[in-house]
Structure prediction request, 119 residues.
Amino acid sequence: MKLRITSARRGQVITLNTDRPVQHAIITADGEPPATASPRCPDDGGTRPWPYELRFYDPPVDGFVATLRLPGAGLPRIYVSDYTMGLEQVPGFKPRPVDLARSPVHNSDIVVVGRSLKP
Prediction:
């Protein structure tokens, strides 16, 4: 399966999950050498509903291409999400008190938007 994945909101992180294990992955982004992986996961995916997850940090504006080899027949369910900074744009947002600093953890003060797809 070959997917081009982009963030319409220019997210700083894009995640890709599949509902079955991935046997081999090739990730390409324009101008960069491909990255390959052969993740280890039980053939049945174990007990996790989304046994494969890929996180792409600082993706290019035009996204990246994920070529995945998955076991079994038929197309998998796919979940894609992006993480962006900007809580102040969320309806009902109230700024933190001035004496309270943002956490340095990468998932602090983010908005995650995702979509589950069945190609």
